[in-house]
Amino acid sequence: MTQLGHDSVTAANCSPSVPYIGGYVDGLYRWSDADWARFPNSHHITITVFGDVNAVCCDCESGDLTPQQAAQWAAKRIAMGARPLIYCSESVWGECKSACQAAGVNLDLVDWWIAGYPGSVGAGNLYSGAAGHQFVDIGPIDISCWADGFVPGAPIGSHPTSTQVSTPAQTSNSGVCNVNLPILKQGASGGAVKSLQTLLNTKAGQNLTVDGSFGPATSQAVRNVQAFFKAGVDGIVGAQTWGLLFL
Q1: Most buried pick, 42, 84, 108, 175, via CB within 10 A?
Q2: Whether residue 7 sits in one domain with residue 107
Q3: What pTM does this model have?
């Protein structure tokens, strides 16, 4: 079983009803205290792009931390007595692991948040050995699934999903689309359409070419989903249809 999470450069784009919320503690998109206060019932995944050891997660990607810098950050977190969470893409995961081993980091103490859209495991599924999978990058928000009960930054010596650590009350996934998701219809194009097409393929059994172009085939696939759920069949992807694809 997994739980949903949002992360974004803009806190207002995320839903307060999801169990996991990710935001930045430094860099250009640093969240304010008021931003974090919007999510009192969510696990806070504080993300650093500069290597702040007080953050529970480091961002290892182009323009932010390198695998070697992420490994050094992880070593410092472990020395502080906390499990590090490293965010990286599926394609560089192996390099990150190697960098950690080279730095003397015990991989058993590292938690992983892997980005793949939807990656080799498909949308909404966890990679073996990972705590989280970011499987949708729609623009306003990124959407991830997390191992049920996962505790970001858990103390060394406790299992990362330990029920001994205080966790927020369970929340419904029904609020996943209470955010500023784009309204898409035939003629639209871009990354959001690619994410839509990926979801239609992986979650609704469609067979679309993921090309970022909302043409007749994508429109028909949307209508198929709407008809199946007895929703308004109009071929337009608004909040309700996004929600159907995240069920």
Answers
A1: 84
A2: yes
A3: 0.72
